[in-house]
Amino acid sequence: MDRQDFLQVEQFVALMRGVGFQDVEVMRDDLSRQESVTEFLNFAAKRHRASQLMAISDDAYAAGIRRVQDALATDRDRDLVVRSEFVLVTIVGNKASGQPAA
Q1: For residue 57, is pLDDT > 60?
Q2: What is the total count of domains within the chain?
């Protein structure tokens, strides 16, 4: 959903430069971690806990929960662990001198 709802970093940087920002910098802080699928299911089962889960359709949410449940049922003998990706992106730039305030 993020790829649909938000500009890609490169597009955002181009827009900033296009309106006069200089020395535009992008910083990425990778906060990704390994996560237990069982723990994720326990969290995601209460949909209201995360805005990302509220933003998708009811059908997509239900299908996703079923996929996780099916994966856990297939590998009952071990706790599945997956990489939970989360990257904080900070974009900063300097307003060029002589540019009007936004």
Answers
A1: yes
A2: 1
